[in-house]
Q: What sequence folds into this?
């Protein structure tokens, strides 16, 4: 943006704009721990949805893991039929999850007004399968698919949302199954009721079948005011198709809602089913590993801290532990400084020379130091946090913990020259100004 336009944009920023970037609008939804608002990016005019999470209310509850998981998973997913995560911001008391705003609202609200035609039901189901298949290929299992968690945009395209109950492959136990009981009763797969473990992909497929039934029938396939009675119907697969359903759709639903997960239809089999492909309207969205790698690279600005790292500086809820790390060794230290990136890197190199340590320059603003007969290996990286602040992070990349700690005690004072009070570091790190404009 040209300098004059940028200055004019700054003058138009409302005084109450969140982080000087988002003008908060009407309340879209409300829960016990979070509220969702419509908001507008004051620089671009783009509409977004912001989930505002109260960290104090979350602490001490089992919903902390749900929030961590949802943010971590959404960060990994880029698909036209999945709600996009733009960025995550944090203050001392709240977390702001900035997401794509889907104007059309919930699919549930639309189908509650009347059942859909078979063709329209197929269209939404095709988009749902495209998103679910993509998630499974990335090792993500939603586990709470239902019309309330499916949104529709202005163009009539479906968007999967709410990954708070999702699981990833890392949660699979040695028996190859997931064991956490979760989901919405009417959409839960029969194998979950047995409490013997389940395949995440299989239970998602069952839920997709229930959704398809609801879209075309206008009501649930398994429903009873008595919860246990409803569970018995689900376990036995007792449901009836209305007379207006075509024979092909009835057959297809029988394959999707097969009570035996071993014989239940898979995503690949769905893609080749005649009913699913009828009319030739379905066009597969191809995603390759290089596309995924490109997305991951786009999310990593080498001169800016990742949003998920910055949240860990904020007082209260610490989300850092749930996010994937490329460094398997946990020993690490970090602090905030007002010195330039070049100055900090220069000080590390001077320290290495004085301590007779070998030092290697890495890409961008990273260095690797080693010595003491292989007992010491430290990686140091400098990230630009804002225009006036940088973050220095040191990690033990090899060797023993003792030498790493001893060396860091010597290095850190060299890096914080001119800092009179180290308490200032934590106050800067936890301030809301340290998380402005952090792209995911």
A:
């Amino acid at each position: 943006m040209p300098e004059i336009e940028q200055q004019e944009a700054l003058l138009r920023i409302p005084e109450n704009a969140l982080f000087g970037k988002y003008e908060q609008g009407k309340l879209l939804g409300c829960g016990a721990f979070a509220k969702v608002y419509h908001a507008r990016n004051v620089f671009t005019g783009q509409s977004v949805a912001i989930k505002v999470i109260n960290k104090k209310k979350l602490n001490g509850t089992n919903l902390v893991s749900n929030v961590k998981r949802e943010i971590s998973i959404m960060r990994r997913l880029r698909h036209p039929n999945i709600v996009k995560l733009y960025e995550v911001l944090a203050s001392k008391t709240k977390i702001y999850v900035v997401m794509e705003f889907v104007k059309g609202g919930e699919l549930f609200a639309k189908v509650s007004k009347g059942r859909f035609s078979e063709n329209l039901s197929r269209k939404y189901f095709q988009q749902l399968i495209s998103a679910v298949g993509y998630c499974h290929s990335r090792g993500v299992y939603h586990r709470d698919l239902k019309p309330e968690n499916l949104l529709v945009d202005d163009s009539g395209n479906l968007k999967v949302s709410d990954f708070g109950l999702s699981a990833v492959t890392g949660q699979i136990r040695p028996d190859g199954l997931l064991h956490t009981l979760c989901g919405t009763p009417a959409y839960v797969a029969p194998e979950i009721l047995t409490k013997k473990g389940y395949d995440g992909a299989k239970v998602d497929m069952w839920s997709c079948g229930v959704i398809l039934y609801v879209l075309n029938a206008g009501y649930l396939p398994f429903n009873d005011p008595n919860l246990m009675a409803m569970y018995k119907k689900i376990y036995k697969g007792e449901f009836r198709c209305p007379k207006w359903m075509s024979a092909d759709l009835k057959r297809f639903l029988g394959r999707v809602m097969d009570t035996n997960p071993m014989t239940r239809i898979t995503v690949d089999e769905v893609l080749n089913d005649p009913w699913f492909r009828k009319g030739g309207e379905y066009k597969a969205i191809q995603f390759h590993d290089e596309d995924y790698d490109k997305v991951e690279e786009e999310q990593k600005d080498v001169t800016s801290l990742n949003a998920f790292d910055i949240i860990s500086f904020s007082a209260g809820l610490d989300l850092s532990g749930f996010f994937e790390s490329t460094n398997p060794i946990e020993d690490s230290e970090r602090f905030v400084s007002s010195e330039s990136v070049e100055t900090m890197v220069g000080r590390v190199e001077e320290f290495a020379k004085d301590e007779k340590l070998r030092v290697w320059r890495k890409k961008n603003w990273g260095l690797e130091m080693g010595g003491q007969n292989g007992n010491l290996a430290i990686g140091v990286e400098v990230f630009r946090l804002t225009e006036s602040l940088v973050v220095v992070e040191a990690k033990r990349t090899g060797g023993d913990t003792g030498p790493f700690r001893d060396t860091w005690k010597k290095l850190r004072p060299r890096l914080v020259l001119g800092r009179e009070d180290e308490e200032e570091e934590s106050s800067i790190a936890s301030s809301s100004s340290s998380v402005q404009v952090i792209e995911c």
Observations:
- The two ends are 20 Å apart (CA to CA).
- The mean pLDDT is 76.
- The CA atoms of residues 267 and 298 lie 29 Å apart.
- The first helix runs from residue 3 to 11.
